[in-house]
């Protein structure tokens, strides 16, 4: 495939983290000749994060494959309505439907499911308990890096958590979904349910919620499959 015909890949991070976590995936995609954009969501509100994503989509040449991790799935579900977006890729992400938010999707966890160690809000923002961050979010990430991620958390706004999708782009655009089978933030059965509902092409990979950090090869492989399909 000629390089000029490859779509641009835009990577969207989730809550508590920033775009730097995509570095491993970015490097693999660049090595394969893709143009890659990384969104730095402010994670203040869904509207702000969608706006930040649309700025990067606007800069892209040609069609865009929009990739979201975790809460970033809600962002791409809304931002994916942009006409430049051709495909969606969910990485252990919330593929929300119309009117759904992360808050509505996590409010009734099934019995026995792992519950994210989210601390009570401070001034409208959320953090994960640092002592429990590695076990819940990044169990297969090198311990020193997981500790760094815990200590460099980005405050996640309640307006982002509660931001509801107005029109899910997966209803009109093809999607792919990587299920992280060892995820302790979004239970794997919930990931399977959302993937099936979206009609996504599903790939399973061993990995924690931070599968995009710990297993960049598996994540890049799903993205490339989508981009070249």
TrEMBL record:
Sorted UniProt keywords: Hydrolase
Top-level taxon in the UniProt lineage: Bacteria
Start and end residues of each AB hydrolase-1 domain: 9-221
MF (Gene Ontology): hydrolase activity
Pfam families: Abhydrolase_6
Protein name: Alpha/beta hydrolase
The species this protein was found in: Bradyrhizobium rifense
Biological classification of the source: Bacteria, Pseudomonadati, Pseudomonadota, Alphaproteobacteria, Hyphomicrobiales
């Amino acid at each position: 495939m000629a390089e000029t015909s490859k779509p641009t890949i835009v990577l969207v991070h989730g809550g508590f983290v920033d775009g730097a976590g995509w570095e491993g995936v970015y490097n693999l995609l660049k090595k394969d000749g893709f143009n890659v954009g990384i969104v730095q969501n402010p994670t203040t509100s869904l509207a702000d994060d969608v706006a930040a994503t649309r700025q990067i989509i606007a800069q892209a040449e040609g069609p865009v494959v929009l990739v979201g991790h975790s809460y970033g799935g809600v962002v791409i579900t809304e931002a994916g309505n942009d006409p430049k977006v051709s495909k969606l890729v969910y990485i252990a992400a919330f593929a929300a439907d119309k009117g759904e938010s992360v808050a509505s999707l996590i409010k009734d966890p099934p019995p026995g499911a792992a519950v994210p160690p989210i601390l009570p809000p401070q001034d409208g923002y959320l953090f994960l308990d640092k002592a429990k961050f590695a076990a819940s979010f990044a169990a297969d990430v090198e311990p020193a890096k997981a500790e760094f991620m815990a200590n460099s958390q980005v405050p996640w706004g309640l307006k982002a958590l509660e931001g509801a999708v107005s029109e899910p782009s997966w209803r009109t655009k093809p999607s792919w979904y990587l299920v992280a089978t060892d995820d302790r933030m979004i239970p794997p059965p919930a990931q399977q349910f959302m993937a099936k509902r979206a009609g996504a092409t599903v790939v399973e990979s061993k990995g924690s919620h931070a599968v995009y950090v710990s297993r960049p090869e598996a994540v890049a492989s799903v993205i490339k499959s989508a981009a070249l399909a």
